[in-house]
Amino acid sequence: MARSTPVKxxxxxxxxxxxxxxxxxxxxxxxxxxxxxxRDGWWDGASWVPxxxxxxQGGTQxxxxxxxxxxxxxxxxxxxxxxxxxxxxxxxxxxSESEITKQGTQNIVVSIPGRPDNATLERIEASAKLTFRPxxxxxxxxxxxxxxxxxxxxxSPTATPYTPNPDLESTPTxxxxxxxxxxxxxxxxxxxxxxxxCAAENDLATARDDEPLVTCSTDGTAKYILGPVEVQGSDxxxxxxxxxxxxxxxxxxxxxxxxxFDGQGTDRxxxxxxxxVSLQAPQNQFAVTLDNQVITAPxxxxxxxxxxxxxxxxxxxxxxxxxxxxxxFGALPLSxxxxxxxxxxxxLGQTQLVSGLIAGLIGLILVVIYSLxxxxxxxxxxVLSLVIAAVLTYLVIAIxxxxxxxxxxxxxxxxxxxxxxxxxxxFIVYFERIRDExxxxxxxxxxxxxxxxxxxxxxxxxxxxxxxxxxxxxILAVGNVKGFALTLGITTVIDLIVVSLFTxxxxxxxxxxxxxxxxxxxxxxxxxxLGAVYRGRAQFRTPAVAGRKGAGGREAVKxxxxxxxxxxxKNTERVDTxxxxxxxxxx
Length: 587
What we know:
16% strand, alpha+beta, four-stranded antiparallel beta sheet, 49% helix, six-stranded antiparallel beta sheet
């Protein structure tokens, strides 16, 4: 026998749901297998178990101390700005439930769940002020000079910082006309450059912005003499990475970093690049320094007057992303040094996690009990729908954990518990719409389709409000509240998927069974217990509920609509009038 159209649609929807679950399972399973086998790639850190946040797992606490010159002070505004920038650095890799707070008047405490990877630690510890300085002179440095092959800029234990001869002249013989003027190179500065060892632990924190600087690149492969600071990192409004375009606007295979300056930065950068473009190498280079070390020193190929610059070089996708993050989030108003780096224990721990899970289980049990009392056998659809929603949520959370750095906090667990009510609410709306259709005299198969058309509008409206609230919280909030917003948003989307691809198709299928289709008294869809009415041709019969006894009659009275009650009252008044008239005739 050929299948009806609702059955075909139901099977198609359930198939799509199975494909989604299988796809998420395969993605997480494959990534976990590759990670466990020790292969490097986008699956690094993949696991079946979501990572826990700081309040449940503990983690690493890093204390940053402001580096001040003699007589300098730190304002509360500067510390607040530094906290915001460091939080942006950490969150740029995903929601990690980290905590960044001020400590006293000069320190910032960064708490990160678990043991962060080296990239995250470098992102935090590279917390110096970002500056742009013109290059006065530079030369390459051999690997042997910086601690041996493969050591990069690692400080050598035997290397000591060089102190220039104090008898040499330290004042320029002629007053420099601009930051690129070679008059900045005094005999004492030249002596320092000649003997400067990139492998030594040189003190760069006290370098002044209005004086030249001898320094090295962060990888220790080049040594520089730089002029005074001309553009501050705080003048950058945005920095992104992407593929560079050629003169015709076509994308190339070369990765680049794109910069955008604010109004003040645009004016300063325009003035500097207009000067540099006319100079010979290496004076046409503009060094970007972080912690007074050169992270890149591109050449100025043209005067840039619109505040939009592009840095090209031997970049990969990852290295261009790292540099873009450094430029975008590196503009701290102060220089900081790492004062301490220690492991901390969980502030809430496993006990609170278990308590939260027990609370969720109690809520789930109450929902099941309510469904059994109110909807009887129909409650099994509620239970199965909640199980499907739980499976989808777990898979999504697990994938976000290793792919985007998400960590589950107690606030996130709260969001998952709230989702039980959101999902149950959708079922109740749908079931009640079906019951309304049954009271109106429809058969169950027709009631399922008509009730779905009416219910889906209400469900979508309700979930849209929840989703907008989650988005607002995620954008405006920080820390644990952001984690709550994320889980709330995820479960709201999953609720729509489950009710569309599982709950409705299941009701389409069970409506064709004898138990539900004929309205068994334990099915929860018994038309007689609901007070159904019959619509004949040009006729309408109101349910005779007034004289019915037992639970069925009471349920029918309870479930009457306003229109049905008014019709019943009018019918009762007509009966009373007729009876009174007959009494007068008899008398």
